[in-house]
Amino acid sequence: MNWNQLELNPRIAATARRALKSVREVLCVSGPDLQRLTGLSRSDVQQLLAAAAAACRRHPPVPALLLHGGQCRRFESGLRLSVGCPILDRLLRGGLPVGGVTELAGESGAGKTQLALQLCLSVQYPQQHGGLDSGAVYICTEDSFPIRRLQQLIREQSSLRLDVPPSLINRLQFSDHVYIEHAADLDSLQVCLSQRVPLLLARGLVRLLVVDSVAALFRSEFLTDDWLERNKQLLTLSSTLHHLSQEFTTPVLCINQVTHTHLPPSSGLSPALGLAWANQVMVRLMMQRLQGTITRGNQSSSLRRLEVVFAPHLARDGQDAAVWREGVRGTEVSEHITELLL
């Protein structure tokens, strides 16, 4: 992508060209940082970001994952990891693709970690029940692992997975097959991904990798002027995740934070780490916490919505959901009516 591909005011383009080496650098820097680097006004920077985003949509890079023929064949094979809910699985055409990096972004409290924990249990079921007959490794980069919530989800599996015989659920030792890692900085994360995780994958002990969250370390370790090194580290991390996914045919789920944006057609929130990171993931999902409340028996839940932002095999669509004791479930029509009456 070059400057001539941007539909932009010539004055803004000329100023940006003097301050930045390439259009790609626009995709790697936040709005406030662009203001400081270029001296442009906030309005000008918004136009610059919008033009760069539009050019990226017109000339999208091929995700690194899809450049490998063998990986394409595995992706097209249709193998999916169920999220444990038939309504949400319909939205995702069976669940997370096996052999790809999926991003799940959203605000705090949206339900991202809830869904990730649910997948750590779903992966342990046989393939005929949407699993991969293996465990999961869960890397925490900011908060402690929610062990009590995981234990509650395990106790409630028979309520969530009505499609699975109770005898099978009782035989599975779920807690023994969730491997928890903690990474306080990027160096320890890379050590974990280059040493301990490959060992678990090679031994067949895990078939799902969760990073919660991918943005936390990049937001805490880099200053404004370090954006080139930040971008280099971001691409290194992406390359490592893709390599693990390809070599072991393993779904990778990266939980991401969000930032506030004023660029149309955004709802005001955008996944963190910019377009440079967006170009590295194959599937981007967003989870939002809405205003409504749903009541079911003696339980109530804030209404959530799981949105498909982009994916090579999915239409851009969404599904309302709620978080119950047994996990995250898509809402039925009757539950929508309840929500509307509140």
From TrEMBL:
Residues 77-258 form the RecA family profile domain. One of its GO terms (biological process) is resolution of mitotic recombination intermediates. One of its GO terms (molecular function) is ATP-dependent DNA damage sensor activity. InterPro entries: AAA+_ATPase, DNA_recomb/repair_RecA-like, HHH_XRCC3_RAD51B, P-loop_NTPase, Rad51_C, RecA_ATP-bd, XRCC3-like_C. The keyword ATP-binding applies. The keyword Coiled coil does not apply. Belongs to the RecA family. RAD51 subfamily. Involved in the homologous recombination repair (HRR) pathway of double-stranded DNA, thought to repair chromosomal fragmentation, translocations and deletions. This is DNA repair protein. It comes from Lates calcarifer. The gene is XRCC3.
